[in-house]
Amino acid sequence: MQKWADYRSILQEKGQQAKDQVKTVKLIGNMIWKSGPFLILALFLFMFFEGILPAFQLYASKQIIDGLSAVDGGASGQQSLHWAWMYAGSMVAFVILSSLKKWVVKILSERSMLSINLLLLQAWENVPGMKFFDQKKYRNRLEALREATGWLPAQIMTISTSFFTGLISLLSIIGLIANLSPLLAILLVASTIPYAIKQNRYAELDWEYEKDAAEERRRMNYARDLLLGRRAAKEVRLFGLGNFFREMYLVTFGKLYARFERLQNRFARDSALTGFFSGAVAGLGYLWIIYQIDAQAITPGDIALYLLAVFQLSKEAREVANDGADTWELWRMADDFRLFIEAEPDIKQAAQPQKSVAGSPMAIEFRDVYFRYEYADDADDEEEVEESEAEPEEYDGDDDSDLADMTYFEEAEEADSEPPETEEAAGREYVLQGVSFSISPGECVAIVGANGSGKTTLVKLLCRFYEQTSGQILIDGQEIGKLVIEDVRKRIAAVFQDLGRYGVTVEENIALASWEMGEQDKLRKTAALAGFDEVASGLPHAYETMLGPEWGGVDLSGGQWQKLAIARALYRDADFIIMDEPTASLDIRAEYELYNSFRELMKGKTVLLISHRFSTVKMANRILVLKNGRIVEEGTHSQLMELGGEYANMYRLQAESFEEDEGKVANG
């Protein structure tokens, strides 16, 4: 019984795979069809005629030879001449059809590239949260797909048309051979089946290898880009890191190459064995035809026809097997695109969402909020990366695309909605543990805490990048999960620690926060408030200056980029502003200037301020102290200092460190 159950399970799995493949073919097929219906029809016509031409040429050769060898001479010779002209015409037709087919394929490939990228961008819009960007479980699959948008449509078109043209040619030649001996035609086709199976199997293994090797390739690219890029060039030169990263590249390549070599050795061995079997059967076919010559059962034209047909059939069968395996591999990649495109939204929109009305400072309330990431390593990664105080001073655009971290390919497991049973379990699993606080409209509240305490996670929940595991988050008294996601986000502006540095003009960098507004006076005003107007005035083309090295633009210092990000956040004129380490890259004077203009900057807005600098935190009306995912203290700066708890200890440590540094400077 268990054996039958296993068979049934395997059949169900295969059936599901077939259904998924049909979905993929339908999706990609519709995409290609929409790229040019008339071109598709013309392509099928070209493939059909190009496919039958080899069989026609073989048959024409038979007629020419039979006519030339006939005893009657004249009439048969005239017939041979007619067939010779048709043969010559077929060669011209073959060249024309091949050229037209290549032209259509190139046009459709370019149009399909646009279509598939639009599908991917639409899929990105359909997944409004951030967990797919943060999680790394499925990065290998996406890494293999990320660059494929540029070449996959062209490869699908090229290889698929080659496959179908070869298949038509193969079928037509089979028809010719079957006219002599159906059994010989069947044997010749059957002899290529093992070869085709092996080709398909190794195409599958090759694709799996590419996905599995993606992480190592990222490591290789990381080492290479560090050595060739600008971001770390100073330290690489100063500390002599070339050998270290070169060795990293070589060791990683060695691991990859060992696996690649084993796969290719198996492929070569099995291809040779199955190819030998196919060739042996074709050789037996030649011997059989020679036997028929001795028996005088066929004409000289038949001899030429069938000898060439057997050779052509064997060759076409292997080529079709190769193209079929390549086509199947490409469609497997397309299947991954389908899973990406059909990904379920990670943030659920309410069936009848409520509108969030903009135009007034936002009121925020957290009620006993618990949150944990779905995979254990995500919480660690998230806090390490986003709450790190380290900020590169310059940016040169060498970062890998964030698309490399998108993970759209499998539905996430349901998060446990129950709070942790014990404090110990909570400490292990939950980033936020029963967090409750409120921010009144127009109030500025600061959050302080060590790295990993949950500050950035809290911000992600407010921006609806994630959904809380349990508890409630209220915006103006309405549950955040019942509000339209886009409405909530339009009311929020933020200066994130990992702020955006866009390779566009200064003006565009600022206006991106509300690019549809295009208000020049407001843009200059917000830049001045953020302290960036003076920076812009010193640039070659002021606000029209291209920024970032990607397109040969001007690169800014870390502090200048931060001022620009503050200007961008202010330009949006949002009801709620999040400032995540807004002065981390600013010098003391710039921080002081920002402090003096802070009240003007935040007038009529609710503000959440996250900072490790207590001089910045003093700007807030109220301070929340977050520790291990819990709020342990709350009050003004004076109140918390009088309390003498966690905040006071952190403040004194920072003050002592500052005074010690000042003393060292003063003493030379």
From TrEMBL:
Its main location: membrane. InterPro entries: AAA+_ATPase, ABC1_TM_dom, ABC1_TM_sf, ABC_transporter-like_ATP-bd, ABC_transporter-like_CS, P-loop_NTPase, Type_1_exporter. Pfam families: ABC_membrane (PF00664), ABC_tran (PF00005). The keyword Membrane applies. GO terms for molecular function: ABC-type oligopeptide transporter activity; ATP binding; ATP hydrolysis activity. Residues 378-402 are annotated as: Disordered. The keyword Membrane applies. It is a multi-pass membrane protein. One of its GO terms (cellular component) is plasma membrane. SMART domains: AAA. The chain crosses the membrane at residues 38-60, 80-100, 151-174, 180-197, 272-291. Residues 41-314 form the ABC transmembrane type-1 domain. It is found in: Cell membrane. Residues 401-653 form the ABC transporter domain. Keywords: ATP-binding, Cell membrane, Membrane, Nucleotide-binding, Transmembrane, Transmembrane helix, Transport. PANTHER family: ATP-BINDING CASSETTE SUB-FAMILY B MEMBER 10, MITOCHONDRIAL (PTHR43394:SF1), ATP-DEPENDENT PERMEASE MDL1, MITOCHONDRIAL (PTHR43394). This is ABC transporter ATP-binding protein. It comes from Brevibacillus gelatini.
